[in-house]
Write a structure and sequence with these properties.
This protein is of the alpha+beta class. It is about 25% helix and about 35% strand.
Length: about 150
């Protein structure tokens, strides 16, 4: 499988890494999901960015968000795998790494996410539990989920 990963604060990202990340986020969130929204929300600068590579190709990404920025708890957001790399287990590996790095970087604590409801089972398999009612975000049904420490 030849998987590698890197995690960097925003100001450590090279312009090439930032371009790759923004390109993948646009490919999935804007084009594939047909969702017109402003992806650059002024949170990236305060977060860590986890990039998963297979043979030097970016195949997965997540944004690790400190507590108090999106939710009272720390959070994992902008979770994506490349359409060309799906159904290979990369999403699970990405999320396991994201959970581990959240706790390393931000300390022990609960992790809250805003999950698209179609992925509820996936996140539940990683220890997340639905918390609250479903809501519409940019035309896609979501629900908050929490993973207790």
């Amino acid at each position: 499988m030849n998987l590698t990963h890197t995690i960097k604060a925003f100001d450590q990202l090279t312009v090439y890494e930032l371009y790759e990340v923004l390109k993948l986020r646009s490919e999935v969130f804007v084009v594939e999901q047909n969702c017109v929204f402003l992806d650059q929300d002024d949170k990236d600068q305060k977060c860590y960015h986890l990039m998963l590579y297979s043979y030097d190709q970016l195949v997965g990404y997540s944004r690790l968000v400190p507590a108090g920025l999106s939710y009272p708890e720390m959070s994992i957001g902008r979770v994506i795998t490349s359409p060309s790399a799906r159904r290979k287990g990369f999403g699970k590996i990405l999320m396991e790494l994201s959970i581990d790095y959240c706790q390393q970087l931000y300390g022990a604590g609960d992790i809250r996410i805003g999950a698209q409801t179609y992925a509820l089972g996936f996140y539940a398999s990683l220890g997340f539990v639905a918390d609250g009612d479903t809501y519409d975000e940019d035309g896609i049904e979501h629900i908050e989920m929490v993973r207790k420490n």
